[in-house]
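Re: that chain you flagged

S.,

Sorry for the slow reply, it's been a week of failed gels. I finally had a moment to sit down with the sequence you sent. For the record, here it is as I used it:
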Amino acid sequence: MDEIFFTFIREIREEKGLNPYKMAKLMNFKTVERYLEFERSKKALNVEKLLLLWRISGWSAKRFMERMEDDFRKEQVQETK
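Prediction finished late last night. Pasting the structure tokens below so you have them in one place:
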């Protein structure tokens, strides 16, 4: 279950008009590469980083959680195929 791909992370960055460098700085990543690993991650996500991402997104808590759940459900469907 730790192999979940969350597409909403990139969606937030693009919606905000931020490049990976600016997003890495906002999220306190030491390098852009580390941020991109987070964005492309297929592993469980750090709660601290998720909270920071939520604040950056400007989304309501409900929208944020629904998008995260949508990605989770899509991945579950893929696993059953």
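What I noticed first: Residues 61-80 form the longest helix (20 residues).

Talk soon,
D.
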